[in-house]
Amino acid sequence: MTDWTIADIPPLSGKTAVITGATGGLGYETALALAGAGASVVLTGRNEAKGRHALQAISGKFPNAEIAYENLDLANLASVADFATRYAAAHASLDLLINNAGVMALPERQVTSDGFEMQLGTNYLGHYALTALLLPLLRHGHQPRVVNLSSLAHRSGAINFGDLQSARSYSSWKAYCQSKLAMLMFALELQRRSDAVGWGLMSNAAHPGYARTELIANGPGTSGLLWQLGQFLQPYISQSAAEGALPTLFAATSPQAKAGGYYGPNWFYELKGSPVPAKIMPQAEDATAAARLWDVSATLTGVSFDPVAVAA
Questions:
Q1: What is the pTM of this model?
Q2: Which CATH number characterizes residue 163's domain?
Q3: Sign of the C-alpha dihedral, residues 206, 212, 217, 221?
Q4: What pLDDT was estimated at residue 306?
Q5: 130 domain residue, yes or no
Q6: Considering the domain boundaries, does residue 5 fall inside one?
Q7: 176 annotated active-site
């Protein structure tokens, strides 16, 4: 695979896309590139002021872009359901869903509006529910794709079914790694189920390597060893948010992307560089655990793919 850039994104006129966490960082850069390629893009986030700013910035670069902003809080299942209802009322189909939003390594355990551990709830369970609710529209899309954002952190992840919400013992990094492993497992399981029942989806995943975003500042914070080490090494081992978005854009648009694929940067330890197939750890490919996680997620969120799919 030769070096892949945004110049390789095919024309996307007539395509519709929804991106979570699109008011900054990787999500914004993804929205900017898709809008520049002609897609109609819905940016979602929790901060309307940031949403307006993102729209203005994209419009400044692409005056004819078809873009909109919608409030969506993945840490609140009622907000997820409300967004899905609003989107369905305004659109007949969806071609591309990019599950990008996330929080990282929160120092203290927090919970979502629904009582889930914040990282599991925001990074994974909210996206599980959103994807299920949008499935009927995706099935009416043209060659629809779902892209889940995972992380290098999935390599250290384990799904702790005995304490999924980290209620008995909380470790910020273990919870983050679990949530990102769950996202990759979800992507692979969604492809398996689509193939089995004929949903017609391409489900894949991506990670940005070490991209310079606000994720650390908004999670572990700007103090401590992680921050200091990161600041020292950044110039050598990291890349910009725009570069970090390339694996996502490849997974979302490239004819070379494969169903059930996982993409990340090509440099040492997949920290930066052009998108290529990324390493998937064995625990992410455990189909039995993935099926169990799927069922647990349906119970926790009260949202099931199968009845929704039949109704479509």
A1: 0.92
A2: 3.40.50.720
A3: positive
A4: 72
A5: yes
A6: no
A7: yes
